[in-house]
Structure formats: structure tokens, C-alpha cells
Amino acid sequence: MKVLTVTRLLATGALFAAIAVGQTAQAQTAAPTVASPAVAAVKPRNVIFILLDDLRYDGMGFLQPGLKTPNIDALARGGTYFPNTVVTSSLCSPSRATILTGMTARNHGVVDNNHSSEDGLTFFPRYLQQAGYQTAFIGKWHMGSDTDAPRSGFDKWISFKGQGAYYPTNGIAPAAAARGERNMLNIDGKPVTQKGYLTDELTDYAMSWLEKERDPNKPFFLYLSHKAVHSDPLPPPRYAHQYDGVNFRLPTSAANTPQNYAGKPMWVYNQRNSWHGVDFFYNSDMTMAEYLRYYYSTLSAVDDSVGRIMSYLKQRGLEKDTLVVFTADNGFQIGEHGLIDKRTAYEPSVRVPMVMYEPGTVPAGKVNQGQLRNLDYAPTFLDLAGVARPKQFEGVSAWPLITGKIDATAWKAPDFVYEYYWEWSFPMTPGTFAIRRGPLKYIQYYGVYDTDELYDVTKDPDEMHNLVNDPEYLADKIALRQAMYEQLADRSGHHVIPYTQRLSIGSVRRNRDGTGAAPFPQDWLVEPNRLDRLDDILPDSLAKAAAHASGQALRPMPVVGRDGNDVTSGSKP
């Protein structure tokens, strides 16, 4: 098999075909003392971890002709692109908690974007500190309690409450802004006024720490966490008209056609006309094509940020000693199956961009098909620093894959198990569990009257053909259901659905002139008094499939009082 290179794919435009397939801190427990480095000969390397919010897996210029991201593209040319990078929960707070703790949502307990507790959690930079690293967190935290107080594990702290704001007066009433009220940052525990455009300002702080504040004799870990490109995305003035006139194309499945919804759960169609549906997204009449002009022009400021960081590394001779990681906390749907945003187990929601760069260590200009999960980041970062793995970590170190010591074809990636817990504030998406093993992805929903799904994402990357009722895949469905259930047990072996306190009805509005409700599936519509009326409750099996194929019930159940299901027949000896 030929080795793909980003350079060749850029030249040919064939990349899509190639890759189709405060109080909180005080409440934390003390980090266990880290043992001596696992590999004593490891030379500590610097790491710059750049995390975006809600950037699509294909939201970069080297994947989308017409997008202008020259600095991100340069990272890909000089490093490795990992198209099969996924998140175990596609929602800001749970995903960020998984990145920071090396644990899944069912174990770290940060299950939605409301007020999950951070009590008892240890964030991986604390282990790096113990190994002699200087660490900095700059940007969006948005995890656990709604506080911007410094968290343990970071020598430098710059953050803000909640989602933050692109501009100093965004979200502030005009009268209050006129009085001088501004959005605030928390810098090492002290409130400081936000002065300018957030992406640029966070980058200024990051550059200041790199250039002036850190100890140059120690390795460093910089966690630069941008608000961009989260809704509502606003670009800086210099990019306000960057994509004027560009008509971004939507996926084919965005159209409201019977073909697009064949085999899909009812909730998917019902969400079309909602806060997270393409017809009424964010309860506005904006088109997705128009929204994407804001989305991608906001990304351009991040691209500038990447350029500033890379220039610094080159000028200081740090390029070969620093791993640069560019990724996002979630994917983002732009109309696939009529949906927007994330939360679902569909590919555009769970897949995220991932580019890594370190000349001489990370192969240059390559596309690595090995699967990475955000669950694997923390163990990888400790591994590359030669730090022992904490016992609570659930992921695996992907450092051998990243450096090319293990080829992607030999990489034994664990099952990708996905969990999303229903969130009252946005109730249109049900609780969702999924498992990906090889080419097959099985999706199951919790607490909703609907169908489940099974896709071969290699043959059907757009997830258009639900195979869940295909007899040829019956054994696969049964096996994946069992494996998913087993792997979704928490550390105590329990299967528990967590939830946070409900404070209102949530976003339930629909366009009164928009799409109505979905019809029930045709194979659910039956006549009364069937003898197989109990069969749908019985476990799926080859025997049940054979009975139904022959027109028989697996376990005949006449209606009470009829055909032998009565007192007279039941009382006979």
C-alpha cells in the first residue's frame, strides 16, 4: 500500500477520498506522587497543545479548497495528520474532562455542560509538574463548576467563566457597557479586564509566557484552549469580510427527502426543526452557508495564532524539541442528516481535526490512519515525558503510533466507545451510546421510543444505510451490543445514568411554520392481536430471526382470555 503524504494530497486535491474512511481547586485530592520516569533515558520535550472548540474534522485548508489556513496547513505539511481521531463524548465539558483526566465521562463524572463537580479529579499536568515541567493553561476551561478560579496542575493560569466572549462587551447590556462594564479574565487568581479580541489576546498571553515568564531551563507544557470557533462565532475586524460571497456547500444528507431519512431514528427528523436542527438552528432564520462564513473567518484568527507560535519556536531553535498538537474538543455537524452542532455519535460529531508536528520525531507530510481517542491524550503526554502512568487512566499511549515506531496497520486500537448523557438544557438529542469496532459502528439510544443504528463506515462513510435490521449483520449487532454494554460499566462495574439538576424546560422551541414530527417506522405499524406481540422484547437471536422469516412467532402469546391464554386452558392438569 502506498504511503499517503499531505503534500501529494494537497497537490492532487484527493485528500477527501484518501481519508473517507478556587473552590474547585481546593476540593481536588492530592495527586499521587509520580514514580521515577518510566523510561529514564527519555529527554523531556516541550509540548504545545492547541485546543479549539467545535472545529470540524475537515475544517482546514488542506482538506477544503477555498479555506485559508496557511499556518495550519504548514503544520500538516511538516507533520502528520490523523484523520481517525475521535472523542468519547462529543460535548465541551465532558470532552475536556476526558482530555485532562484520562478518564471517560462515566468515571470522571463531568457529564454535561451544566454543573458537574470536579471534586476528586487529578489533571494530568500535575504529573508533569512533578517531573520538572512548567505548565500553563491559557483560555477556555468550561468544565465542572462555573468558575474561572485557577486549577491545580498549572503554574500559569489565564481563563474566564463559562463560554467567554469574543469581544470585551459581547453579552453585556448596552447601558452597562456605556458605564464601563467589560468581560473579565482570571489571571493567576486575579480579575483582569478583557481588552480586545479574545483569540488574539489569549495568544498575546501565551507568547508572553513563552518569551518572558517561563524558566528556559525547564521543559514546558502549554495548554492553549481557544473559544473559537464556538457559536456564535465572530471574527476579528481584519477577517470580517474574508468569505463574503462564498457559498459553502452543505452535505447531501441535509436535504429533507425520504431517501435521506430512510432507516433513521425518529428523533433525527424531529430535531430538524429545533435549536440543533438545520431548519431552525439556534432558533434563527440564518442559513448554514451564511453561518459558515462567520465560522471559518473566526478560524483565521486561530491560524494567525498558530503562525505566531511556530515563528517563535523556529526563532528560538525549539522546533525540534517541541511537540505541537492541533485539535478540537468536538466535531461539528453542518446539516448532516438535518442536524447541526455535536452530541450525536455520527461521524462529523465524533471526529475531530488532529495534526501533530515535531521535526525529526513526528514523520513529515504523512497521513496516519491509526485511530486516536481524546481518552489517549493524557497517557500519551506522560509517556513522551517519561512519566509513569497513573492507575486511573483508561486510555493508551499512542506515542509509538505518532512517531511511526508502530505502523498504522499494526496499531491495535481499542474499541471506540461513545457516551452522551441526555442534557435537559438541549433535550432534542437523546442519551446516546455507541461502539466502533473495525468498520462497524453500532448506536443505541437511552430513554427514547426509537430505533437503533448500525453502519459500515468504511463502505458507507456518510452513514446513510442503517443495517440494524439486515439479517446478514444480526450476529455483529448482537456482539457489538454486548461489548458496548460491558465496556460502559464504570470503575465499580455498575451501569449508571448520571444527570445534573434541571433548572428550566430547556430549548424546546420549534418554528411554527417549519417541519413537523416524524412518522413511526412502517414496520412498527401492525394489526392487533398478533401472536408475536411479545417477540420484540425477547433478545435478538438467530432463532428469532428464523422464526420471523418463516412467518412464525418465537414465543406465541395470545391475547389474555383467548386461544388458550385463559383460565380454562391454564387450569388443566
From TrEMBL:
Region called Disordered, residue ranges: 548-573
Keywords for this protein: Calcium, Hydrolase, Metal-binding, Signal
GO MF, one annotated term: arylsulfatase activity
Tree of life domain: Bacteria
Source species: Sphingomonas panacis
UniProt xrefs under InterPro entries: Alkaline_phosphatase_core_sf, Sulfatase, Sulfatase_CS, Sulfatase_N
Alphabetical list of Pfam families matching this protein: Sulfatase
Signal sequence extent: 1-27
Matching PANTHER family: ARYLSULFATASE, ARYLSULFATASE FAMILY MEMBER
Annotated Sulfatase N-terminal domain residues: 45-387
Record-stated family: Belongs to the sulfatase family.
Coiled-coil blocks: none
The protein's name: Acetylglucosamine-6-sulfatase
SUPFAM superfamilies xref list: Alkaline phosphatase-like
